[in-house]
Structures are given as C-alpha cells and as structure tokens.
Amino acid sequence: MLQVTRRQLLQRGALAWAAAHPLARRAGARRVPLSPFRAGVASGEPDHLGVVLWTRVFPDSAVAAIEVVWELSADPGFTTLRRSGEFTTTADHAHCIHVVAEPGPGEWYYRFRALGFTSPVGRTVIAPAAGATSLRLAAASCQHFESGYYAAHRDIAAQRPDLVLWLGDYIYEDAAARQGAPAVRRHEGGEARTLSDYRARYAQYKSDPDLQAAHAACAWLVMWDDHEVEDNYAGLTPTSPAEAATFPARRDAAYQAWWEHTPTRLAPPVAETEYRVYRTAAWSDLASFVLLDGRQYRTDQACGDRALSLDPPCAALHEPGRTMLGSAQEQFLEERLSASTARWRVIGNQTVMADATVNGSVLNFDQWDGYPDERSRIFAILADRHVANVVVLTGDIHLAAVAQLRQGDPGSGPPIGVEFVSTSISSPGLVPTDLAPILRRFPAMVGAELAHRGYVLHTVTPQRWTAAYRIVADVTDQSSAVSTVATYAVEAGTNTVSLMDG
Ligand code: FE
Ligand code: CA
Description:
Helices cover 19% and strands 27% of the residues. The chain is α+β, with helices and mostly antiparallel strands. It folds into two domains: 6-124, Immunoglobulin-like (Sandwich), CATH 2.60.40; 137-499, Alkaline phosphatase D (PhoD) (Purple Acid Phosphatase, chain A, domain 2), CATH 3.60.21.70. The radius of gyration is 23 Å and the shape is globular.
C-alpha cells in the first residue's frame, strides 16, 4: 500500500532520477536531466473507437511506482484536450504504459507527462466504423540494430501512413557482432536470456530516433517472429538441445518483455502457459487482418532444419500432425478468412508462404515449404470457399519478393491470393544477391530484390491494392536516400498480381 501522495511520488522520482543519472550528475549545479521518455511514444491496434497509447518511463531504480498523465488532442499543439487521464506505472512492468484512449475516428495527437517532463508528441489515426475508402499501410520487419541504421523508419515516418504492420524480429537476441555483417553499432550486453536482458535490449533498440519517429507517425499492429525470443525456436524447443531445461523460463521472460514494449490490447502473459497473441484487426470494412503466430505452436523444423540443400527432403516432412500454427490457430485462420466481409483479407505472416521448392527439394525448412500439408489445407479452403482478395504480408527472410499464390501447382493452379514479402529494415541479407534472377524464375515468384533493405508501402482502396517497394540505398548511412524500386498492383476480384513499374 502506497502511503505517499502523487505529488510526493513525482518529486521523489524526479530528484532520485536526476541524482542517479550520470549526465545529470556531470551537469553539476546546472542539472539538466534527460527526459525519462527516452523510448519515445507509440500507439497500436486501432479500432473504430480508439487506440492503445504506449510509453515507457525510465526512472531511478528506487522508484516503485510513477504517476503518468496522458493527453490526447485533435491538434499537435494540444489547444483542446479530447481525452486525458492518469496511469500508475510499476516496476513489475518496467514502467511501461498501455492505455486505451477512445476519441472516435480521425487523426489525433497524444503525449505523456511525468516526473516534470513532457514526452514527444505522437500522431495516430482511427478509421470510421464503415466506409473507409483508403488505407496507407507500411509493412516491415527485421531491424537488427548492429547491421544498419533505420533510414527505412525515417522514410516510414515521412510518409505518414495510416498504419504500420510489424511482422517480427523487432529485437535480435544475440550478443554483440554475432552475425558477422557490417556493424554500424553494437548490441549492449551478451545474448539476451533473462527478463532484464530482454528489457535492456528493447530499451536499446527503442533509443533509435528514426524508430521512435516511425512509432510517433501512426499506430502499429505488432506481431513477433523468432528473434524476439531466439533464432528459429519452435514452441518450447530451443535451437540448442542443451538449453531444453531452461528454455521455458527464457521464453516466458522474452514474452513478458515483448508485451511490455508493444502497444497492444493483449493482456500480459502468464508464465508457463500459452500466450495467445494471434488475433484479428480491421481497417473499417476495407481490410480485415488475421495476425499469425508462426512460432509458439510449431513442430520443430524438419530434416535437421538444413539450409539451401538440393537433396530430397526426409520422410518426416509429411509426418501427420506437423504444424506451424497448431490446430486451434489454423482453424481460427480459416474461419476468420471465410467469415470476413471486408473488401481485402490480409494475413500478417512471418515466414514465406509461397512455394519455393526446387524439384521437390526444400531450400528452407523454417518457412511454409517445411509445413506443406498444413499449407495445402489452408489453400484448399481458400479455393473451395471462394475467399476473394487475400493478401499475405510476410517478413523474416530479409529479401523483397512478390509471389502469386496458387492452389496445387505453383505455376498453373488457380490463383488464391498474393504474397508481398517486405525485406528487412536493417538485418543483413540471408540469400546471395546474385540468386535474384534464379529466384524470379521460380513458378510462384513474380519479383525479387535481394540487394537492399527497406519495407513495403501499401495503398489500399476498394478497387485496387498497390504495393510500393521502398529500398534503402545504403543501410550503413543513417541519412541514406530511400526510393521506390518497383510497384505492384492487385485489382480487386482477381487474386492476381502484376508489375506496374520498376
Ligand atoms: Fe529477421
Ligand atoms: Ca525471423
């Protein structure tokens, strides 16, 4: 029970924080402490009523609870408040804040105040309940901190989209300089394993000004992939068998830190239980989203998870019960896609769904090629139920690609959807760039660009889905130019993608 007033809390927090902070100490008599809002602000998961507002307050460790005021206005100068309130942060949640504000449809601005400071201002957009005629959606993933700067995020912020869909690998768990790619900056600490490790890793990533700007530009829908926990983990199976006994606790820590730092409506995870994060979202009746969790329920990657092998796959590939989603999530996906009345049905997905096999050989057992029977079931249901206007948005593989999804034969089956693979924000390419012409000749592939980092800016109207591939000229240059390398379009009712220009 706290026996102090809010004023006392605020004063104590500010003084303790300023005394403890090295920069504040160095400033001596002219103390100018840094803002405790140094992870920036974020918003997420808008519906037609409101949105989640997020920030993290960095106080002195002696402060258990901090009162934070949040404010939301129709104008960035906050001349008239539309909504406001107070929230008490606690150390249990790393002083992260998740507040649902419900101002109704429109463009809104929000900020927080605590410890004598005011946060940066964030913008967020809420669609009407029905009748939206456009959506500008940035899809992105994979922002390895050491491997490059976030010029792509600077460009997302400049584009002022309505929504960002994050497809995973928000952080990478590895120790400094593990990936061997050009390192423009260093991870702090060793490989993340504990709650404090993961929290520190989020804090480091969120210190980046361009990432903060992309969060402040609009609301995000956030899903995870593997690196929010560990590379290529599958359910409770870690990559290293030696870690089997300790991995459940590590995964719990990683999930907890993910929730704390994500602007989501989800409740926090409970240790040693399923944490259901697959869910739906919508942009009015223009687009419905099913956000998939391809990691928590999956069977371990088959055939030793060998990479880029042209040997025939082992028999285990078709073992009954092999799954990426788990049966409950597979059913959820099929039901929600069939039941959606939105114009476009979007699947937020991590690993490549299109067929990328070569004469039956699986090049990457981590993606849907490694779970072919489950994929066939999903594609068959889309075809049988005549589900129209399916768009799959995919991350994970650090390359830009466009695929025509077909039931059955990947080159000649009936089209059942289109897949847009956004490349990585900064993570290094995994496939040699000189393989691009070969990849483009795969039956399902319409386009591929392997040499650059970036994201995809989608413009959605009832008549047409347009995907502009934004690429970063030089990921080692914080102020790099970002430009469109190619634009693709899907006319509503066709399930078929074509290159517009590029
Ligand atoms: Fe990645
Ligand atoms: Ca990944």
